[in-house]
Amino acid sequence: MLAFVNTHVSGGGRPELFSDGIALTRWFDEHDLPVDPGEVTDSDAARARGLRDALATLLQAHAADVDQAELAAAELHLRTNAESLPLVVLIDSETSRLHPAQTGVDGAFAAVLAAVATTTATGQWTRLKMCKNPPCHTGFVDKTKNSAGRFCSTQCGSQLTMRAYRSRLKSK
Fold it and tell me: Where would I find the Zinc finger CGNR domain in this sequence (predicted)?
């Protein structure tokens, strides 16, 4: 799920990984989400960007204040997508897990939502956050004891602190 969220352009030089259908097919293949190469379209890439951005908004809400209207729109977008991407419960003698009820592009998107549901079920959902450093905005797992982490690394925290310091110096 974090790999899906971390596909956007960043100020650190990360390219857009869902730029078109070909790029999305490549990402699906790299993450063992089987789709037929000719099946993925540019509109699927746009749909992936929308799904990713909605998930990113929720992860931002775990780390910082987010505009409530933006958060509500992201939640609605995810709910709407989830309704068209059914999951089934696979049960065996050892465990149970959510699995896409469809194959292809919809199945790949459903697998991402299954990962979200699994993360929630394990109690780790609120520990998934987006780095508060604007050029970075990388999704990360907050491993702090009190779940108060706001940055993906100490480097990002230092960069934001240094920018604030320089801004205060300029304003004097």
Answer: 127-168
Rounded Cα distance, 54 and 89, in Å = 24
Q: CA 161 to CA 146: how far, in whole Å? A: 21
Q: Phi, psi at residue 139, to the nearest 5°? A: -75, 140
Q: What is the pLDDT along the chain (172 residues), one digit of tens a residue?
A: 999 999 988 766 788 999 999 999 999 999 999 898 789 999 999 999 999 999 999 999 998 788 999 999 999 999 999 999 999 999 999 989 999 999 999 999 999 999 999 999 999 999 999 998 888 888 999 999 998 888 888 888 777 777 777 777 787 7
Torsion angle of C-alpha atoms 116, 38, 27, 66, degrees rounded to 10 = -50
- Distance from the first to the final alpha carbon of the chain: 44
* C-alpha closest to that of 102 among 81, 88, 117: 88
Q: What residue type is assigned to position 16 of the chain?
A: E
Smallest Cα–Cα separation from 37: which of 52, 15, 22, 48? 22
Helix axes 104-121, 68-84, angle to 10 degrees: 120
Supply 43's token pair: 């509109």
The Cβ of residue 107 has, within 10 Å, a number of other Cβ atoms equal to: 20
Q: Which fold has domain 2-171?
A: Jann2411-like fold (1.10.3300)
